[in-house]
Design brief:
Blueprint (H helix, E strand, L loop, with lengths): L1 E4 L1 E4 L2 E9 L14 H30 L1 H15 L1 H14 L3 H17 L4 H21 L11 E5 L4 H6 L5 E6 L7 H8 L4 E3 L4 E3 L5 E2 L13 E5 L4 E4 L3 H22 L15 E6 L5 H6 L5 E5 L13 H15 L4 E4 L27 H6 L1 H15 L4 E5 L5 H21 L7 E6 L2 H5 L1 H4 L5 E4 L1 H9 L17 H16 L3 E4 L10 H7 L3 E4 L4 H10 L15 H4 L4
Parallel strand pairs: 3-4, 4-5, 5-6, 11-12, 11-18, 12-13, 13-14, 14-15, 15-16, 16-17, 17-18
Antiparallel strand pairs: 1-10, 2-6, 3-9, 7-8, 9-10
Helix pairs in contact: 1-2, 1-3, 1-5, 2-5, 3-4, 4-5, 8-19, 10-12, 12-13
The chain binds phosphoenolpyruvate (PEP) and magnesium ion.
Length: 572
């Protein structure tokens, strides 16, 4: 059995036989044996057929998923008539002796690349539409039919085009597992509209030998056609050829999920108030700008942790101030007034980048990471702070520092914030000063939380690291088993202390580590008086349901009447 992971873009649990749709290869060098005239004729008749296909797809989409979603295909229909595409394909056929299908794909690829480089999100999305339209033409030229589903399947692909998604018979699609994809791509939006479980950025297997091995991004993955797959698009996990025990466990999780989901969706718009009257805000953790769609879908009341370091990973230079500003401003404007807490750079430990020139470390989890890097290399920090301050003028943004161990670090960081503010002011830039909180994720910070609370606007507990450092268990080490225990009495004692000290100083306390979603602890968090819990978007409504069912009595409460973190962040 191979166990793979990806990001959940539409929650659900499913299993079944795989239909693996492969992306057609473009082999520009293959020359056609037909004459230019013959290839041109093939193209023109494919164009007519594509127009007819799209006309009926527009009708199907309007009837099945609504007029608004059908607009995508109206755009495709217009693109077919666009001389920029058609003439370019004709030109390519005439010059190159290339066959009509490859000419269409090559033109699609080139034009899409131009769109992909544009700044505007809307225009970038058009790249997928161009590829969709040109590969439709190519498929028709090659004599292929649109994918017709004859049985229920889990669809595995590199990426999906929106028209492929809609053209398939919805009742036969069990789920999607895509190697690429983004939360905001049309295929993702359509999957959510049709409520089909979807995992994107899936690490597909290179082999199934033993426990299997994942293919890296540029490696070919195994052909999974016909294999059996289990998909848990709540946790983002999928299983190729699962064993019987895994199938039974998945089936159980599916039954529970389906029942729960129906109940939980009715909780959208309802607050998380316990039976004893304690209100807990249910926020979301995100790592990328497009995760916000899932937050809104699940009625997140705010973003409790935006892991900004994901903007820094997987590239050869750090993101510029402008790139970061755009990302933060986009999240804030999409959240439309709800608070967005940006956690400043938390590079280090398992999140590595080459361009900061950090030394190799024996114990990176205890090394130069997070706020330590920012204080040692203030220029890096300043670029991010400038972007955050500027974006704060566009929406409700707060920020917090990770890996704090003592007050002097907070003071140093705040001094840099003041320098940044002075610079922005002198430049006449538009900015706002965000609320400043800290993560409590080291035992040192937890023990000193009474003192630290006098100097910040809120606390957010990082239970993943707090457990690691309190129990002396590397969170990456799979051999530690029961020893890495987030329910360890010492961790829970620290959690109680942190909430008490926050409230004594009149500031709010939240949790953004994985423990926030643990249903076994919701009662305890109500009792401790936590004000906010931040979890992955798909877990928000389940958490809210747990809070509403809790009869625990809150013993450390800041105030009963809180509606918005912006109001409760500081009561001093
Ligand atoms: C944590 O440590 O609990 C936390 C939320 O931060 P991360 O998991 O990103 O280290
Ligand atoms: Mg952490």
């Amino acid at each position: 059995m191979y166990v793979g992971h990806g990001r959940c873009a539409c929650a659900g649990i499913t299993m079944g036989k795989v239909l693996h749709i492969k992306t057609p290869e473009v082999v520009d060098s293959v020359r056609t044996s037909k004459t230019v005239e013959e290839e041109l004729n093939l193209f023109e008749s494919a164009l007519l057929k594509a127009q007819a296909e799209l006309d009926s797809l527009i009708d199907k989409a309007r009837a099945e998923i609504g007029a608004e979603q059908a607009e995508i295909f109206e755009i495709h229909r217009m693109m077919l008539d666009d001389p920029d595409i058609g003439d370019n394909i004709r030109e390519r056929i005439k010059q190159g002796g290339i066959n009509a299908a490859d000419a269409a794909i090559a033109v699609g690829r080139e034009q899409a690349q131009e769109f992909e480089q544009l700044d505007d999100d809307y225009m970038r999305e058009r790249a997928a539409d161009i590829k969709d339209v040109t590969s439709r033409i190519a498929r028709i030229v090659r004599g292929g039919e649109a994918v017709t589903l004859t049985e229920s399947v889990v669809i595995v692909a590199d990426d999906l085009q929106p028209s492929q998604t809609v053209a398939m018979d919805r009742s036969k699609i069990l789920g999607f597992v895509l190697r690429k994809g983004t939360q905001n791509s049309h295929a993702s939006i359509l999957a959510r509209t049709m409520n089909i479980p979807l995992i994107i950025n899936a690490k597909l297997p290179k082999s199934l030998e033993g426990e299997g091995a994942a293919a890296s991004d540029d490696e070919d993955c195994l052909d999974l056609d016909g294999k059996f797959m289990g998909v848990n698009a709540v946790t983002g996990t999928f299983y190729v050829e699962p064993d019987e025990a895994t199938i039974a466990k998945l089936q159980q999780e599916k039954d529970v999920f389906d029942q729960q989901r129906i109940r939980q969706l009715a909780l959208r718009g309802q607050p998380g108030i316990s039976k004893s009257g304690h209100r807990i805000l249910t926020f979301a953790n995100i790592g990328q700008v497009d995760d916000v769609e899932q937050v809104l879908e699940n009625d997140g009341e705010g973003i409790g942790l935006f892991r900004s370091e994901f903007l820094y990973l997987g590239r050869s230079t750090p993101p510029t101030e402008e790139e970061q500003f755009k990302a933060y401003a986009k999240v804030a404007s999409t959240m439309n007034g709800k608070v967005v807490i940006i956690r400043t750079l938390d590079i280090g430990a398992d999140k590595k980048v080459d361009y900061f020139n950090l030394p190799e470390e024996e114990n990176p989890a205890m090394g130069v990471r997070a706020l330590r890097i920012c204080l040692m290399q203030p220029d890096i920090f300043k670029t991010q702070l400038r972007a955050i301050y500027r974006a704060a003028a566009r929406g409700n943004i707060a920020m917090m520092f990770p890996m704090v161990t003592r007050l002097s670090e907070v003071e140093e960081a705040k001094a840099i914030c003041q320098e940044v503010e002075a610079e922005l002011k002198a430049e006449g830039q538009e900015y706002a000063v965000p609320k400043i909180g800290i993560m409590i994720e080291t035992p040192a910070a937890a023990i000193l939380s009474a003192q630290l609370a006098q100097h910040v606007d809120f606390f957010s507990v990082g239970t993943n690291d707090l457990t690691q450092y309190t129990t002396a268990c590397d969170r990456q080490n799979q051999n530690l088993g029961k020893f890495y225990d987030p329910h360890h009495e010492a961790v829970l004692e620290l959690l109680r202390l942190i909430a008490r000290n926050a409230h004594a100083a009149g500031i709010a306390a939240g949790i953004c580590g994985e423990l926030a979603a643990d249903p076994e602890l919701t009662d305890l968090f109500v009792e401790m008086g936590y004000d906010e819990l931040s979890v992955s978007p798909g877990a928000i409504l389940a958490l809210r349901e747990r809070i509403r069912a809790s009869t625990a009595q809150c013993q450390s409460e800041l105030t009963n009447a809180r509606v918005h973190l912006g109001e409760i962040i500081k009561h001093r």
